[in-house]
Structure formats: structure tokens, C-alpha cells
Amino acid sequence: DAKTTQPNSMESNEEEPVHLPCNHSTISGTDYIHWYRQLPSQGPEYVIHGLTSNVNNRMASLAIAEDRKSSTLILHRATLRDAAVYYCILRGMNTGNQFYFGTGTSLTVIP
Amino acid sequence: EAQVTQNPRYLITVTGKKLTVTCSQNMNHEYMSWYRQDPGLGLRQIYYSMNVEVTDKGDVPEGYKVSRKEKRNFPLILESPSPNQTSLYFCASSLDTPRSPLHFGNGTRLTVT
Questions:
Q1: In the A/B pair of chains, how many CB contacts fall below 8 A?
Q2: Using one digit for the tens of pLDDT, what is the confidence trace for A33-80?
Q3: Does B38 touch chain A (CB under 8 A)?
């Protein structure tokens, strides 16, 4: 079962970097790591994905461990608008199309 | 604009009265799926579809039906709703590749009394 494990909640001060961890010890070689976030009263939205190398986009950075059993979503400067629930999921040939979102990490940003 | 559209946004109904929640996407995506979200349980997959006329059960399919007669539409059908199906429902779609992100609708809040 391609499940991921994330802390239930985290806090960050505004304008400081945030590192959101995700463990995926059962990841297979073809699984991509996807991150999504869900703002209050909205559907989840895509943030970033990666396979082996670290990735950057306008929203965040994704750091993937060398053994790929864990990854970290990095928000470089947290803003109040980043307060959301963040999910990491695996998507690949072995996961088929059943994705385990779990309960994610609820990020609180403190002004 | 590329989007996944769910209707209705809010629905209150009574036990046993059949209902359908519609989901439509305009991105020519092969993959579509339905999730329910409940406090403390996160997002759980109900059904998914890889393409027209191809559907499969997710983690919590009991009490739900789906159909995929057209590529753009993937309705969720509750033949006989019960109070334990009160939840927030999300539809999602994507291309059928591991790199492709999921696009979610804005949700349907269903209350069954």
C-alpha cells in the first residue's frame, strides 16, 4: 500500500521558511511524489511534484531524500495565505490510480 | 479556463431520496475520481475512472455508484442516501500519467437528514 506519513500539524512564523516533511518508505522506483494544499473551504490544489531530483517552482521547493523514502516541501517565506492543509501522495505505475491522501499536515502561520 | 466543475455546491436531502452530483472537466483528461472528506479522516477515494466506460472502486465505494459515458463527465450517484453519507465531496481529474497533477473541483457539501 503506497501510503505516506505526515505530521498532523505544524506552526511557522510569518516570513520564515517552513519545512513540511513526508515519509514514504514503501515508494517504488516509478512513483512520483506529489504535493497538494487545501485552503479553507476550497478543493485541494497542486503545488509541486518530483521523481528523484529536487524541484523548484513559483510556489515552493521539493527536496527528495537520496533513498527517496522521504521528502520535504519547502515554503521559503511563509505568508498568512500559506495557512492550509498540505498533503503528499505517491503516484506511479504501482500505485495505479488509487491515491492515499490521509489527513495531511495542517500548517498554521503566526503573524 | 481549464477547470473541474461540480454541481451543486450545497445539497440538503432526506434519507432514501436518490440524488446525483455532477462533475465535468474541460481538459480532455482520461482519469477522473471522487473523494469524500470527513473531519479527522482526511480525503478518501470513493470511485475512479481511467476512461470512458472504465470505472473502479476506491477505498469507500459502499452506497455510491458512478458512470463514465462521456470523457468529460463523471457523475456520482447516491441511490438511497443515508445520514452517514453526509460529507464534503470532491471530484478530481488528470491526464493518465504519473507526472500529471490532479485538478480538483470546489466541492459539494451534502447533508442527508
A1: 58
A2: 999 999 988 999 999 999 999 999 998 999 999 999 999 999 999 999
A3: no
**Binning pLDDT at 50, 70 and 90, where does residue B2 land?**
confident
Nearest residue on chain A to B91, alpha-carbon basis: A43
**CB B23, CB B34: distance < 8 Å:** yes
DSSP state of B72: T
Q: Are the C-beta atoms of residues A17 and A76 closer than 8 Å to each other?
A: yes
Cβ-contact B98, A92 below 8 angstroms: yes
Residues B45, B29, A96, CA angle at the centre, nearest 5°? 45
The verdict on B39 touching A (C-beta cutoff 8 Å) is: no
| Rounded distance between C-alpha atoms, residue B99 and residue B110, angstroms | 32
Q: Which of A53, A97, A101 to mutate to test the interface with B (most CBs of B within 10 A)?
A: A97
- The answer to whether B58 faces chain A, any CB pair under 8 Å, is yes
Whole-angstrom Cα Rg for chain B: 13
Inter-chain residue contact A98 with B48, CB threshold 8 Å: yes
